[in-house]
Amino acid sequence: MLGSTADSLFWMFRYIERAENTLCLIESGFQLHLISSKNLKNEWDAILKTSSIRQFFTKNNSQLDSLKIINFMFKDQINSNNIYELISKARENARRSRVAMTLEVWESVNTCWLFLKEQLKKNVTENRVQSLIKDTREKIALIYGYLNKTMLKDEILNFCYLGTYIERFNNTARILNTRQYLLIEERLYGLEYYNNFQLEMILRSISSYRSFMWKNQNTINSKKVSNFLISDKDMPRSLMFSIQETIQCIKLILNKNIYKNACYKTAQNIHRKIQSRKMFSNNYLFLNDLIDLNMKLATEIEEEFNFH
Amino acid sequence: MVYKIKNVDEAFISDNSVRTNYKKYYNWFNNQNFSNLTKKNSEAFKFFKDTGITFKVYSDNNDDEYLIPFDIVPRIINRREWEKIVKGITQRVIAINLFLNDIYSNQEIINSGIIPISLLKNNSAFFPEMMGLTPPNKIYNHISGIDLIKTEKNDFYVLEDNVRVPSGVSYMIENRDTMMKLFPDLFSKYAVTDNRDYPNKLSKILKNCSPLNRKKEPNIAVLTPGVHNSAFFEHAFLADQLGAELVEGKDLRVLDKFLKMKTIRGWEKIDILYRRVDDEYLDPLTFKEDSFLGVPGLMEVYRNKNITIANAPGTGIADDKAIYSYIPEIINFYLGEKAILKNVKTFKCNDQNELKYVLDNIHALVVKEVHGSGGYGMLIGPLSSKSEILEFKNKILKNPNNYIAQPTLSLSTCPIFTKKGLSPRHVDLRPFALLSNKGVSVTNGGLTRVALKKDSLVVNSSQGGGTKDTWVLGA
Asked: Which of B253, B255, B262, B264 would you mutate first to test chain A, the one with the most A CBs within 10 A?
């Protein structure tokens, strides 16, 4: 496979994953908006920070207005990470690597893009937010469905997954990092400082509230939430799960001389750090370190597989 | 009355009786619910949109992609008529290859005074660099797209021989796929010959010209100018169908006398390059210095016989519009045969007498640039204003070598589906021919392009043309 094709596949799935994560964030914010929570502003603030778009939004908007933020995240051109732009970039990369994917995968990306292009001609209104999130999510799920059902289980597929998991790791780490005070202060006060509702919002922002409650018999506290997001081996959005999958992809692509390989070493290093994490360690430093290492890993992947 | 027939219509005779090949279709059509057909029409549109079968128009500043409009009424050609076309194209394609082999070696056709040397000397499509180089299996034009038109005498004429990088074959295949999805019942009524085996045949003829030992499986790559090229969809489609890598100049490098592509595991050799990049961009060391589309040193690899390039560099000279007018002589010279398919009468502006004729009769002629394509840089006399004609006359006088002229032909029409029912539109046809040392294979049918504007003669997709599925009926 061409290095440039691997590059396109990797980024195609980073963008798709990023778009999906953005949808989750919008959804969690919108839920708060509906119940007029007093935490609404803080929550939107955290969401904008997580997506690194806060400064762009506040430049032209003094108020954290829910619908303005939602439209900003869906379609505003000032925000280069808006959902339409992300899916456009994913499609552009799919076009470049068209030869590497099945017709079904290509068509599902293309129709997702066409759908958003049509839907986002007008501003998203309050009444449309939920259906738009649901429909877009279904379109994205279709891409993954076809990816898993129609593609050969070879290195091409592994580059798609690599993009997905590197991006997901980054996203979950950022969500945790924006809210790391939730996890530190518990230690300082020795009690549940934050209410269950805020913890629930964190879980909702990665669409994992139900699975968390199911796994923890409906008991929610900071410790359990941070464990769930950081080190749970079965939770598809946890840091642990993402790095495990990344390691698996690297192994499959490399096939031989794995242990001396820079990407593999970095990925293992991340894995080790998560495994040996001590409860109540400095989460801020810990997460920043992981985010940096994950970025380093992405660069090493680009170099190792001749993306450029 | 179905509709008014101006010249020759392929479905109806002037008294509005239906031609034999369209009889079944017309009966079927009349039994269809009109709103259902309208629905099918929009389904076709959606199908092309979802599949992303798009093209880009160069002159546009924005980055938008366009769909080539598709018409749901098939063009139907009977067996007997088609057999003549196949024979004619086969003859032409073989003669063109012999011509190319000759002009890049002994130049017997020039020495015999049949073609003036000036035609090569002053021609940027002729590559002196290719002199004395023999391509593998002596094949230059592996892939040709021969543009045909039908005129009032109900006879097919050749309008152009496209042997540089003819495009459109992906649309031919996708059009068939679409029709089969939309109207399966029609296919069970008609014995339509299949045209979708083209990629397999292309793969075979390319491998046939491999520079490697027969037993070794060659590495094939399709070279595209990139994702912004108007025909990118087709490049990706063909690479996919061939099981080949789709490469751009930036993926390639000449290393150790071979052309190599950058893969995730390092540099890998390419044995056969199906290039969709024009000659002059192939190698900046030999041709255009500022080209990023090609690979520096590629021609050296070619000279060392370490790669097959399809079509071979230098092939473009044969689809030059000035050379076109000599094709009947070329066929006669190399094959000793009379051309089966006629040429359209062509006036060469580099000839004083013919130039005078062109200038005197320009209002009735179509004037074309010798190297132009895509319907650009041409003047359609009868449809042009006085000032446009005057402007074009000045252009011709400044550089007469650069122009040829042809009479405006009354192209045949075919019915298309409109809101008001069937309506006639002008069409042309581009069958594709594959040449190897084992012979010529012509696609069953080809790409029918249709001028969707009423009475328009311009079928180019870049200027409002659409396409149709073309059916060649089986025995």
From this structure: B264
Tell whether B177 is within 8 A of chain A (Cβ). no
B52–A305 CB contact, under 8 Å = no
Number of domains in chain B: 1
**A2, B251: Cβ pair inside 8 Å?**
yes
What is the per-residue pLDDT for B372? 59
Q: If you compute the radius of gyration of chain A from its CA atoms, what whole number of angstroms results?
A: 19
Residue B421, in any domain of the structure: no
CATH of the domain at B403: 3.30.1490.270
Pairing of the two strands B252-255 and B258-263: antiparallel
Which residue in chain A is spatially nearest to B235 when comparing CA positions? A99
Residue tagged 């209104």 (tokens): A125
In a domain, B12, yes or no: no
Helix locations, chain A, DSSP H = 3-34, 40-50, 54-60, 66-75, 83-96, 103-119, 129-150, 155-178, 180-189, 196-204, 209-215, 222-231, 239-254, 262-275, 283-304
Residues in chain B, pLDDT under 50:
59-60
Q: Closest Cα partner for B136 from B213, B220, B209?
A: B209
Q: Is A154 on the interface with B (CB under 8 A)?
A: no
B174–A contact, CB cutoff 8 A:
no
**DSSP three-state, residue B425:** strand
Residues 65..94 of A with a Cβ closer than 8 Å to B: which? Answer: 92
Q: Does residue B396 fall inside a structural domain?
A: yes
Decide if B236 and A107 are in contact by the 8 Å CB cutoff. Answer: no
Yes or no, beta carbons of B245 and A2 under 8 Å apart: yes
Count Cβ–Cβ pairs < 8 Å, chain A vs chain B.
56
Q: Write down the pLDDT at residue B57.
A: 55
CB contact, 8 Å: B49 with chain A? yes
Contact partners, residue B262, CB within 8 Å, separation at least 6:
A2, A3, A4, A306, B251, B252, B253
Query: B398 lies in a domain?
Result: yes
The ipTM of this complex is 0.85
Structural domain boundaries enclosing B389: 346-408
What are φ and ψ of residue B343, in 5° steps? -90, 155
Of B51, B236, B247, the CB nearest to A2: B247
Q: Which residue has the higher pLDDT, A292 or A179?
A: A292
Closest CA to B179 of B52, B50, B77, B40: B40
Residues B63-74: pLDDT tens digits?
567 788 899 999
Length of chain A in terms of residues written: 308
Q: At what angle do helices A222-231 and A262-275 cross, to 10 degrees?
A: 160
DSSP B350: T
Are β-strands B342-343 and B156-162 bridged in parallel, bridged antiparallel, or unpaired? Answer: parallel
Residues 256-285 of B with CB under 8 A from A: 261-264, 266
